[in-house]
Structures are given as C-alpha cells and as structure tokens.
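Revision sheet: structure tokens.
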Amino acid sequence: MDRYIELLIEELNKISLKMNSSNETELESADEDESFLKHIENVENYLYGDKMPVSSITGILFEQLPPPERLNKRQQKILSAELEKFLLYFHFELDFPRKYPLHLRYPFIRNFWNEKHVALSFGSSHIELCSYEKENCPFPGYCNICDEAEEQMNDDKNQNNKNKDELNLDELPF
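Predicted:
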C-alpha cells in the first residue's frame, strides 16, 4: 500500500503543478478591468453555479482514495496532510478542530470526495464538517465549537433582553 500512496501523491503533485501554472498564466494575462470582471463572474459562479462532484473538480476519483480500513495510522496521516494541501489548490478548506489528529481526518476527507460543490477559481470555500449538534459531534473530545456557539447564542440573547429593557417606547418621537 505504501507504493500506491506514493504514486497517488505523485499524481496529486502533478495536478497541483498544472493548477498553479494555469493560475499564474491567467493572472499575468489579465488587465485590471478584465480582472474585475473575472472576479464578478467568479462570485456569481460561487453563488449560482452548477455543483459537480469533487472528483470532477480535482481530477482524482473517489475510487483512487483507499478505504480507511485498508490504511494504517501513518498512511492515513500522510494522505490526510497531502489531500488537505491538494484541496487548497481548488479553494476548498475543510474545517477541522485545530487539534484534531491527521490520521482521524482521513475518513472525512475521503467522504468529501462524494460531495458536490461549485468549482472555484479564487478565494476559499470553508467546508463545515460539524452539524452544531453537541450530542452528534463528529469530533468528540477535540471539539468545542458547540460550546462556543451555545455561549455566543446565550450572550446574544442576554444582549437582546438588555436592549429591550433599555428601550423606552415613551421616548420615541412618533
């Protein structure tokens, strides 16, 4: 399996180099007006564009990514790091908790290949992996997003109540 992983990483690198050189060529050939129009076109594409499988966007098929159970911890760690770096070339950033181990990320990354998204040529599309349901947390022991969201909602609720208490309808000019 180690040799297969090496070959897969070589393929990722080839595609990344192609992406990098085509992006540089596009930037060099565009003037200011053309760049602005391209930016607007990209924003519209992001909002209204057709979604397509990640495998079509990246050129790497889901079937090329080995099932997690066929990989050891070290292999999953290596592939996770390489695939996350690879996805950045396509403007996808998977949002994992900061301290979530690389080897545990691999099944999430592999599943991402089954999803459909709009192909981007600028910016960054953050992919939420959390449903914000504490009882169904995909990252138990590593995530505090639900706690932070709950705390923020309570703070907002308290602020709204405070604002309502301070509002005196008799003082309004109408």
